[in-house]
Amino acid sequence: MNKLNLSLVLLTAFALAACSLNNGQAPAEQGASSIAITHYTDSTELFVEFKKLVKGEQTSFAAHTTLLNPLGFQAVTEGKMIVVLSGGGQPEERAEGGVSAAPGIFRIAITPKFTGKRHLSFQLLSAKATVTHELGVVEVYSDRKTADAVTEAETGAAGIAFSKEQQWKISFANMPVTERVLHESLTVSATLRPRAGGEAIIAAPAAGLLRAASTGFPQIGMAVKAGQVLGYFVPRLGGETDAATLQLAVERARIEAEEARQALTRLEELFKAEAIAEKRVREARSRNRLAMAELDAAQHRSNTYSGGSGGIPLKSPINGTVVAVGAGAGAAVLDGQTLIHIADLGKLWLEVRIPESELGKITQPSGAFFHLEGEDNARVLEAGRNARLVAYGGLVNKDTRTVPAIFEIDNPEGRLRAGMNLRVGLYTGRSEKILAIPASAIVDENGITVVFVQKEGESFERRVVEPGTRDGEWVGLRSGISNGERIVSIGAYQVRLAATAPAALGHGHAH
Predict the structure, then answer these.
(1) What pLDDT is stored for residue 17 in this prediction?
(2) Which of 199, 258, 421, 511 has its CA 20 to 30 A from that of 275?
């Protein structure tokens, strides 16, 4: 069964005067006996205005109907509305109507045939919602004089006027205040960095030159695999060594290798004929292996300085992304100079720095939340769900007087960047059940925390509140609000503007 929130109010002459100012003229056929009702189902809001019901007299309803989209309420723009009077021992009476020229407003007229207490309901039939708003019992009077003579209870000041038409034109929503379990947090500084084992720096082993691999030299943002050759390092020639000398060494090594091979072949034949001892064959085989090794080394030294892909291969030790390049292909580099910086950005460490003075508030860090510029909602990290507590330091840093807490987090979309400095809310491990509202509902008025309570469909009240625990997008309230009251969760600033400078939002009220 839908949760219903029913409020019935008699509009005073003061409220009607305010409405008259909104549209430049007094509403037709409205007087001291006008009624306004705001009613909610899980998916719709109904704000309806009408005169007290009188037998035999036509009553017109202006039913403002809203879809409760959590990202912003929307006017219902199609379908039909059925008004039903029932109960009181009398036959059911019905009337229906469609959306008027003003989107969101259904206009229906009914002429009651019976007096007494009747149950009033509105049935919305549309493609986006089929719901019934049960508005409770209303009185049908025998004549207008009797109806006007009945005095309804005053509901207080008219409040801040902000019409449904204005609400529908902006991003606007309200919601009931309820209790939530919020996790206590404290605001601290933090830095995102690659996790241990998820970062590698390739440095020059000596002074020399860089050469590109066959696929080109790495660029920032390029994904690489462990073992992938990213380029070549060519050490600088020392002393009087030049390319001709290196080539001569290759030729000398090749000749010596050929002579060693031939000598081994000859001795093996003599050994088969039992003309020599086995020892001489073993010695020849050793000389042959050594000659081949010297030839390989000479060729490698020559290739290192002969262009092409020659040089010491620079291989990535990990899977990751190139995050920095210290020099380009063809550049001369110094011994120890950083050439390529690689990091695994799929997982990062959030290193939180907890001030020494705040340590007493923490039982065990259980997560954190933070905002990124351009994102509407906070990123909430919970240890054991979407984060892992790697470490909680036991030593206070002598320079910063802080203790680190490190969380490992996934970064599948790559929105988080290693090296980012953040202000985060660190969960202390404590929690409480408290009335809570979205942070978007709060307006800061020079240090005073204010929310706007929707008293009726088009009437609001400014309320000063005392904020408590902050948990991601939710803020606990110590005082100033009651359970079940509806606060403006989206569009609070515009309601504030309507209170201070109504002309800035324009009008266009229709009833």
Answers:
(1) 33
(2) 258
